[in-house]
């Protein structure tokens, strides 16, 4: 039974040290009871209390990890909506491949090699869902010749046994246990793999997970058995709500198969947005994969910690000493908007990225994180003067108001005001700076 905030408070050291980030131990206890913090945040809780608080401290959704040359983790989530805290483990995106496909190795290799850069981050597929029967063991070896990414094995009991044997020391997922084969697959997965569990209703699913857990299998994923997107959305939301209320029988990541939907792209987007821990796509299609990866990144980025680039001075198009110096903030999207426009123009430039705590230009200026003092400090700190012969700084047009203050901070520099939008930089640099 989950403990209340007051019960948890009585087991804490009650020193109000604030090292957990909360003003009092009582406040921390209330957050712990609500599954919004982890027990390890308290540095002084006793070992005896840790044991008693184990259930209350455990995340409501179990962490499930698929391991091979890389890892895919799902679970450990503690909230229903991202603004309440954040989402942690990104939805694992798997590509379905057929064990009997004569081009299996070629298709796996093509998907494995896929990598696209988005605001400084490299996106790739997470793994492969291998569907097979008697030839599963040979197919696993073929796949392993082309990729080291984790696997979901899909087939009957004999096929899964053969595939698991070929996986060596890896930790794949076996799909799927239902009322007819739960005992056999639980015995097969115990200590070797995680197990997907499938039923037609949430009541039946809860009964099945408890039965499988009693046989010693802790790592499971839930196939909700929904017949359409509407039903899947309803069940996925119900499962998350029940898990957050400490209903342990459904406290596992969800696996979804948008590959079986009429509109795969929409179904996949829904699954990523609404709590799926793993999704399986029908095939490797870059035009589908890229927007899903971007969507996933946006959802699983901590809203309190914007995507940032490292502050510093960046060279674009091999700048020379007479090339201009542009200034921007370290918000990734802002940085890449400026850098890509300048790079595409072919114009050489130095780009000084200031530390604005990951905010865009206007937001940072309004918050006092992008002002003349900070810009001047960055230019001096990165020793920009030693790299240029013509001291010329281009301010973003949105903060033209800073030009006078920056002249006072950098009396030896010429301060110019650039365009408001990055897309106008190439024309500005060509006309105004040459």
What do these coordinates show?
The radius of gyration is 27 Å and the shape is globular. The strands form four sheets. The chain has an eight-stranded parallel β-sheet, covered by helices on one side. Strands 13-15-14-16-17 form a five-stranded mixed β-sheet, sandwiched between helices. 37% of the residues lie in helices and 18% in strands. It has 17 helices and 17 strands. The mean pLDDT is 92. The chain has 434 residues and is of the alpha/beta class. The chain has helices at 5-11, 25-33, 47-52, 54-57, 104-113, 136-144, 157-166, 182-189, 202-214, 229-244, 264-273, 286-300, 332-345, 361-366, 372-381, 403-409, 425-432, and strands spanning 64-67, 71-74, 92-98, 116-118, 121-123, 127-131, 151-154, 173-177, 194-198, 220-223, 254-256, 276-281, 312-316, 325-329, 349-354, 392-395, 414-417. It has three domains: 5-57, 3-methyladenine DNA Glycosylase II, Chain A, domain 3 (Orthogonal Bundle); 64-300, TIM Barrel, CATH 3.20.20; 312-432, Rossmann fold, CATH 3.40.50.11600.
What is the count of DSSP helices, taking H or I runs of 4+ residues?
A: 17
The profile of the biggest β sheet is: 8 strands, parallel
Structural class: alpha/beta
Total beta-strand segments: 17
Going by CATH, the homologous superfamily of the largest domain would be Dihydropteroate synthase-like
**Looking at the structure, what is the overall shape?**
globular
CATH class of the largest domain: Alpha Beta
The side-by-side strand order for the widest beta sheet comes to 10-9-8-7-6-3-12-11
Mean pLDDT: 92
Distance between the termini: 73 Å
In CATH terms, what is the fold-level topology of the largest domain?
TIM Barrel
The number of domains is: 3
Radius of gyration: 27 Å
- Low-confidence segments, ≥5 residues, pLDDT <50? none
């Amino acid at each position: 039974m989950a403990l209340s905030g007051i019960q948890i408070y009585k087991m804490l050291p009650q020193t109000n040290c604030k090292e957990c980030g909360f003003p009092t131990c009582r406040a921390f206890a209330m957050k712990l009871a609500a599954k919004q913090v982890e027990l390890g945040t308290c540095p002084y809780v006793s070992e005896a209390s840790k044991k008693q608080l184990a259930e209350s401290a455990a995340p409501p959704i179990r962490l499930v990890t698929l391991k091979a040359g890389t890892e895919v983790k799902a679970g450990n989530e503690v909230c229903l909506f991202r603004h309440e805290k954040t989402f942690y483990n990104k939805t694992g995106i798997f590509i379905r491949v057929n064990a009997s496909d004569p081009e299996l190795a070629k298709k796996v290799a093509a998907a494995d090699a896929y990598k696209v850069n988005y605001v400084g981050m490299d996106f790739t597929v997470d793994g492969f869902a291998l569907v097979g029967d008697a030839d599963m063991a040979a197919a696993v070896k073929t796949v392993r010749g082309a990729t080291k990414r984790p696997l979901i094995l899909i087939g009957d009991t004999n096929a899964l046994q053969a595939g698991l044997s070929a996986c060596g020391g890896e930790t794949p997922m076996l799909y799927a246990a239902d009322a007819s084969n739960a005992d056999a697959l639980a015995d097969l997965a115990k200590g070797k793999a995680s197990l997907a569990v499938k039923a037609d209703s949430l009541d039946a699913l809860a009964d099945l997970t408890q039965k499988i857990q009693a046989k010693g299998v802790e790592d499971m994923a839930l196939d909700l058995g929904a017949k359409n997107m509407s039903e899947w959305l309803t069940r996925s939301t119900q499962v998350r709500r029940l898990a957050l209320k400490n209903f342990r029988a459904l406290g596992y990541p969800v696996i979804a198969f948008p590959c079986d939907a009429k509109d795969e792209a929409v179904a996949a987007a829904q699954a990523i947005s609404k709590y799926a821990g793993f999704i399986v796509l029908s095939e490797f299609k870059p035009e589908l994969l890229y927007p899903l990866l971007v969507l996933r990144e946006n959802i699983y980025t901590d809203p309190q910690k914007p995507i940032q680039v490292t502050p510093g001075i960046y060279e674009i198009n091999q700048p020379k000493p007479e090339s201009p110096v542009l200034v921007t903030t370290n918000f990734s999207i802002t940085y890449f908007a400026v850098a890509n426009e300048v790079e595409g123009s072919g114009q050489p430039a130095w780009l000084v990225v200031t530390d604005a705590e990951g905010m865009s230009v206007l937001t940072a200026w309004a918050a006092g994180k992008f002002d003349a003092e900070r810009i001047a400090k960055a230019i001096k700190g990165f020793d920009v003067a030693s790299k240029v012969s013509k001291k010329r700084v281009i301010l973003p047009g949105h903060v033209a108001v800073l030009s006078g203050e920056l002249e006072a901070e950098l009396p030896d520099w010429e301060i110019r005001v650039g365009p408001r939008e990055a897309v106008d930089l190439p024309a500005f640099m060509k006309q105004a700076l040459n």
